[in-house]
Amino acid sequence: xxxxxxxxxxxxxxxxxxxxxxxxxxxxxxxxxxxxxxxxxxxxxxxxxxxxxxxxxxxxxxxxxxxxxxxxxxxxxxxxxxxxxxxxxxxxxxxxxxxxxxxxxxxxxxxxxxxxxxxxxxxxxxxxxxxxxxxxxxxxxxxxxxxxxxx
Length: 151
Known about the structure:
The chain has helices at residues 11-21, 28-35, 80-94, 109-117, 145-148; strands at residues 2-5, 40-47, 50-60, 63-71, 99-105, 121-130, 135-143.
């Protein structure tokens, strides 16, 4: 597996993976828009030329927001999600962000556990955030040291 910056040529596979992973998937136009946004960073995890996962984040001023992390069902529990999250955390640190935040389905215990291993803390709940099925989102945040000291 290799992780690289997502390219426009990855979008077709990302859309298919998005449909496999999420009940309300992003469209091709949404991916094009995000890849063209200079405030966004997207990464592709590939195995033998096949997209097996991707991740993306938005950075505005000193705040970061994980927009999505998706891993093909056949590649879950093999370190792909961990590697993609690690790439986002390193990117956030390199941008000197104060924190990185994300929302995750309350029922997605494996993702919550992964985020906690990276130092994310539960900081809130967004009631009814997800559709199909309707579910609350756990709001989690990873604070970087420079953000906590006020520097």
